[in-house]
Amino acid sequence: MSDDDFQADVLSVSERMAAEALIVDVDGFEGPLDLLLTLSRTQKVDLRKISVLALAEQYLGFVEKARHLRIELAADYLVMAAWLAFLKSRLLLPPDPSEEGPSGEELAAHLAFQLERLQAMRDVSARLMGRDQLGRDFFARGQVEVVERRKRVSYTATLLDLMQGYARIRTRDEFRPFVMDRESVMTLEEALDRMRHLIGFAGEWTDIMSYLPEGWSGDPARRRSATAANFAASLELAKTGAIEIRQGETFSPIQIRRKPND
Amino acid sequence: MTDETETEDEAQSLFEAPPMGEQERMVEAVLFASAEPVTVAELTARMPHGSEPAEALVHLRKRYEGRGVTLVRVGDAWAFRTAPDLGYLMHKESVETRKLSRAAIETLAIIAYHQPVTRAEIEEIRGVSVSRGTIDLLIELEWIRFGRRRMSPGRPVTFVVTQGFLDHFGLESARDLPGLKELRAAGLLESRPPPVEPSEDDEDEDDEGQSELFEE
Amino acid sequence: MTDETETEDEAQSLFEAPPMGEQERMVEAVLFASAEPVTVAELTARMPHGSEPAEALVHLRKRYEGRGVTLVRVGDAWAFRTAPDLGYLMHKESVETRKLSRAAIETLAIIAYHQPVTRAEIEEIRGVSVSRGTIDLLIELEWIRFGRRRMSPGRPVTFVVTQGFLDHFGLESARDLPGLKELRAAGLLESRPPPVEPSEDDEDEDDEGQSELFEE
Predict the structure, then answer these.
(1) Phi and psi of B196, rounded to 5°?
(2) What residues are paired with C160 via a beta bridge?
(3) B184 touches chain C (CB under 8 A)
(4) Which of A56, B133, C64, C100 is most buried as measured by Cβ atoms within 10 A of its Cβ?
């Protein structure tokens, strides 16, 4: 792979047109490796005989052009560009015996291997999807036998259920902000449940506030929630005809009592 | 005029009905795959022009005589049925499958991930008490069993998952269950807030994927 | 003594396995009744004591050769499927399958050819991160499942393909994947670590990956 070869490549008109087409399409690539694979096709040789140096140049040229056209490239494209620039310098300079690590040739060989492997995987995915498929080209029995009643209950769950169940438990805390803090909230159901039992004893008019459960009248937040729940529950009970409700004047205590039986 | 007739003839030969053996195969395949019995009219409509499914059905019926499966007529339609004398082989098929309750799934998941684990520990993780029925059901399903007693006060029993559990869930070992990070990476954490841009294109998510990739 | 032997003989004859022709009918009926592949073990469990479903399957497969419905092998299970050349007759039956994204198809292929394979390896091969939805989708389709954890740092989970995958693509086993031999011969299925500082490479992974694929 000589430098001249590469110059010729880059300067050819068709090459440049191809490169421009690529730039327009930059979103269509699945990352740097995909782009490199596409660029390598312009060399029109077997992937095993590809010139990695030329490819590096092509890629760097591509990035340069993108920069020129002010197309913003994702970070991984730039990382690849930096790496290829490094590779290029290794390939061009005579090897320094004192230097640690793999040689430029080894790195280039690995990149060629990656490209060949990616291409191979693409080829076999196409072959796989081109196969006859169940439910499209060949079919299973349409009418599964309905069998006699010798029932045995079998419980099923999929691995997905299991993992999601576990995830649900383990992530409960993380998502705390999204759920109501149940500690200081009394629900209508709770209040209703409680008052239904208590109301049997309330033959006389009693202040609704006296129905607050123990431990709910101190802390303002809890007190507020319990009051609201009790009030709503009282309205509910009044509606069903279980109790009567009255208030002397605005802001005065609200009182309730069991509806006389007569 | 003559030209047209010729063309017609050609068309005729182009659409010549397939040989009877081939028609028999077609009827066989269609009846097999269909969820309902199929009428002759339906067969005619599906098969190549000129086919005679009624005749193919006669051959096919003969072919399946005495086999484990027979071709039967249901009203004016046709269907394959297993031979009546083999009905006893089908009994085991009659299992009613029920989805495991959420409580049971969660309990099972905790045992799988934390085994050996005591009942109190399960309750602590789930935040609610575990009903007896749940544990009993899981034991009955042979998905969990008693492990060694814990060497702590009260020496509580522990629970572990069984080989049957691994078989059912297609796992090689309980240690192969993915961890939380892996679950999240695979998009299996349902309680996660939805992605900002629900786009069709998978690749849009790369950036996010990247950062998670390096957390692993 | 002699008495006992006689009794045993009698018992033996009582439970004598049915003739092979009869066993063939049984296998035929059971497989016909099920939409899912049935394993030899399941057949053995269902059929009378002493039956040899494996042999019956050989006969049955021959009998259905070239018919409109054929007997196919899926992993260690068997199923009847319509002949692929008649697919065009069945289009009413076909359910529109979700179109898979290119990322999903490639990920599936990589898992099939490189199994067991970790997420990081898939990403290394494709050169991009695997988006969350992709693995999720493939698990949901029941085409992939979790394999054994890799015995490398971090003990990452691996993915392998399922029997459902084989069934869907009409493969007897993962060994029958198209082009597998050529890829292996070309060294494209080896997990070749990138050449970095010599201290870091752990090559012990290759062998494991390869051998496990063929243990199945």
Answers:
(1) -60, -50
(2) C145
(3) yes
(4) A56
What SS3 state is found at A127? helix
Domains (ranges, CATH) in chain B?
Answer: 12-88 (1.10.10.10), 99-193 (1.10.10.10)
Please write the tens of the pLDDT for every residue from A63-88: 888 887 777 777 888 888 999 998 88
Q: Count of residues for chain B?
A: 216
CA-CA distance, C154 to A152, in Å (whole number)?
A: 43
pLDDT tens digits for range B183-204: 766 665 543 333 333 333 333 3
Query: How many whole angstroms from its chain centre is CA C26?
Result: 24
**CA–CA separation, A141 vs C23, rounded Å?**
21
Q: Which of B34, B190, B200 to mutate to test the interface with A (most CBs of A within 10 A)?
A: B190
Q: What angle do CA B130, B133, B137 make, to 5 degrees?
A: 110
Residues C185-194 have a mean pLDDT of 84
Sign of the alpha-carbon torsion through C24, C30, C36, C42: negative
**CA distance readout (Å), B188 to A107, A166, B125, C111:** 37, 10, 20, 19
Q: Indicate yes or no: CB of C83 within 8 angstroms of CB of B29.
A: yes
Sign of CA dihedral B162, B164, B168, B174: positive
Name the one residue in this structure whose structure tokens are 């991984």. A76
Contact status, residue C37 vs residue C50, Cβ threshold 8 Å = no
| 8-state DSSP, C148 | P
pLDDT tens-digit map of A197-219: 777 776 788 888 887 777 777 77
Lowest mean pLDDT among A92-101, A128-137, A167-176, C67-76: A167-176
Distance CA B198, CA B206 (A): 13
**Chain B residue with minimum CA distance to C142:** B170
A222-239: average pLDDT: 85
- Determine the residue type at B158: T
Q: What is the DSSP track for B17-58? A: PPPHHHHHHHHHHHHHH-SS-EEHHHHHHHSPTT--HHHHHH
Confidence check: pLDDT of C123 > 70: yes
Alpha carbons C129 and C145: distance in angstroms, whole number: 19
Q: Measured at the alpha carbon of residue A180, what is the angle toward residues A176 and A184, in degrees to the nearest 5?
A: 110
User: B34 CB near a chain A CB, below 8 Å?
Assistant: yes
At B199, which amino acid appears?
S
Token pair listed for A204: 């006389």
- Residue-wise pLDDT for B93-123, tens only, equals 455 667 788 888 889 988 988 888 999 888 8
Q: What share of chain A is helix, strand, coil (3-state, %, to 5)?
A: 60, 5, 35
Separation between Cα atoms, residue B141 and residue B127, nearest integer Å:
24
Beta-carbon separation of B95 and A168 below 8 A:
no
Give me the torsion for CA of A56, A60, A65, A70, rounded to 10°. Answer: 140
**Cβ of B37: how many Cβ atoms within 10 Å?**
18
Interface residues of chain A, partner chain B, Cβ below 8 Å = 30-31, 74, 76, 139-143, 145, 147-172, 175, 178
pLDDT digits (tens, 9 = 90+) for A165-198: 787 777 765 544 334 456 677 878 788 888 877 7
Is A120 in contact with C183 (CB distance < 8 Å)? yes
Tokens of A50: 């590809």
Could you count the other beta carbons within 10 Å of the beta carbon of residue C75? Answer: 19
Does B36 reach chain A within 8 Å, measured CB to CB? Answer: yes
pLDDT at A3 over 50: no
Question: Angle A75-92/A32-41 helices, nearest 10 degrees?
Answer: 50
The reported pTM is 0.59
Four-residue CA torsion sign, B4, B10, B12, B14: negative
Residue C113 has pLDDT above 90, yes or no: yes
Amino acid at C198: P
